[in-house]
Amino acid sequence: MKTIFNIPAAFHSTQYRIYWLGAFASVSGYNLTYFAQLWLIHQINDSTLFLGLVGAANAAPSFILTLIGGAYADRVNKKLIMIGSQIILASLVIIMAILTIFEVVEIWHILVIAVIAGSVSAFDLPSRQAFYPELVNEKSLTSAVAMNASIWQSVRIIAPAVAGFLIALTSTSVVFIFSAVGFTMMAVLLLPLTGISKEDGDNQSQTKLTDQVKDSLKYVFKKPEFRYLIGLAMFSSFFGGSYILLMPIFAVDIFSVGAGGQGVLLACSGVGSVLASLFIATRKTVLPSGTFILAACCLSGISIAIFGLLAELTGSYTLGIVLMLTTGFFTSLHMISTMAALQQMVPSELRGRVMALYGINWSLMLLGGVQAGLIGLALGAPFTVMLGGILVAALSIIFIFANKEFVQIGQKAKEIN
Q1: DSSP type of residue 7
Q2: Is 61 in contact with 124 (CB distance < 8 Å)?
Q3: How many CA atoms lie within 13 A of 383 on its CB side?
Q4: What is the DSSP string of 287-347?
Q5: Is the pTM of this model over 0.85?
Q6: Tens-place pLDDT, residues 81-140
Q7: According to DSSP H, which parts of 199-257 are helical?
Q8: What domains sit in the chain, N to C, each tagged with a CATH number?
Q9: Where are the beta strands (DSSP E) in 64-215?
Q10: Would you say 16 and 139 are in contact if contact means Cβ atoms under 8 Å apart?
């Protein structure tokens, strides 16, 4: 009898299972922290602009430093970078917890700590992207990519709901304490892990850091398949991801459901994302086609646009939940397929830097909150989100009909494999 979902091939590796558990705890820390930051900002000042500034504070240093972090991931011990990052992040959220407990937290506290955390993430995240492929064999790489992505998506189910209910039942400081526990767990679980690949960039260390960064940029811009995949993902994150940063506006001012309701909305987006992640992770062979990636991106944009439109017209919380499910599903199909194609095609000696460039998507989503916050001041949150979704869908449609090189990406992945 055929089954919809098989055991992910990556989970046959004991080391990968341990890494996955640690990463799940750490990513939970990231998401809990971000939720608490946005909630605190909204409580102190309910302007959409300040919500956008929190995103910018997290994203700007990461955006600037990510390629440098990727270069370090290709030349030094990735595990040590990750462990050090977790310790620093845990310390930062403990400081936030103390400030909140004593009720002395101010907007500038949140922004400064967000800037430091964003700087640390610029080194942490590229090291992860370069490290976990070493824990599995080549045949399990696509499964590992999807299961790694499923961490972020499944945490979007759990973390917002947990954070929302913790705030409702206790206080925001408790959320920060839980975040610190997550970062600490990751640091501990990383200790026994060693990758299959024993190369830690010995040859890379002889090259200047700036030259390494330049080499990675030249490689990406010379390869149209990399240029288009990363470019579309960046555009989608910048314009399509604004609904996440503006969610406090939807939860409080439009749906009137408070912190708990905000958690449920983001959790529903996570449910759709996990379903997409599991679908891809459990396929025996996954070679994403350009057409599939573009269709998923287009449907993601359409879902986001409809969410914004119906929120303005109906204010229906139920419809919002349904559309968060579809948005999470199609957005994840797009992003995971893109990441799988990149991981399959990128040379191992460039993996840290190229995946760091792809990782700028997270920063761009947060930076997109600035433009969304400014537009939101004039148009309101619903129409701002709708506009972002329309732009994402429109670019996808243009690529489908006018970019043959993108459509042929799946064939190029097959040739390499």
Answers
A1: P
A2: no
A3: 7
A4: ---HHHHHHHHHHHHHHHHHHHHHHHHT--HHHHHHHHHHHHHHHHHHHHHHHHHHHHHS-
A5: no
A6: 999 999 999 999 999 999 999 989 999 999 999 999 999 998 998 899 889 888 988 778
A7: 209-222, 224-240, 242-245, 247-249
A8: 9-193+208-416 (1.20.1250.20)
A9: none
A10: no
Separation CA 147–CA 343 (nearest Å) = 13
> For residue 202, is pLDDT > 60?
no
C-alpha–C-alpha distance, residues 292 and 289, integer Å: 5
Please provide residue 207's backbone torsions phi and psi, each rounded to the nearest 5 degrees.
-100, 145
C-beta separation of 365 from 392 below 8 A: no
Q: Give the number of other CB atoms < 10 A from CB of residue 404.
A: 9
339 burial level (CB within 10 Å; 0-12, 13-18, 19+): buried
Helix boundaries (H) for 137-223? 141-169, 172-190, 209-222
Q: DSSP for 272-302?
A: HHHHHHHHHHT-S-----HHHHHHHHHHHHH
What whole-number distance in Å separates Cα of residue 28 and Cα of residue 333? 21
Report the distance separating Cα 60 and Cα 14, nearest Å.
36
Q: How far, in Å, CA of 262 to CA of 256, rounded?
A: 9
**Is 267 in contact with 365 (CB distance < 8 Å)?**
no
Instruction: Count the Cβ atoms, other than its own, within 10 Å of residue 372.
Output: 30
Q: Which two tokens stand for residue 145?
A: 């990519």
- 336: Cα within 13 Å, side-chain hemisphere: 32
Of 73, 84, 65, 80, residue with least CA distance to 129 = 73
Q: Using one digit for the tens of pLDDT, what is the confidence trace for 344-371?
A: 778 777 777 788 888 777 777 767 777 8
**Can you tell me the distance from the alpha carbon of 152 to that of 156, in angstroms, rounded to the nearest whole number?**
6
Does residue 203 surpass a pLDDT of 60?
no
**Eight-class DSSP state of 250:** I
Q: Do 126 and 355 contact (CB within 8 A), yes or no?
A: yes
First to last CA, the chain: 29
Q: What's the CA gap between 335 and 327, in Å, rounded?
A: 12
User: What CA–CA distance (Å, rounded) separates 396 from 312?
Assistant: 25
User: What gap in Å lies between CA 264 and CA 324, rounded to an integer?
Assistant: 10
3-state helix, strand, coil in the chain (%, to 5): 85, 0, 15
Task: Count other C-beta atoms under 10 Å from residue 414's C-beta.
Answer: 12
Dist. CA 37–CA 73, nearest whole Å: 28
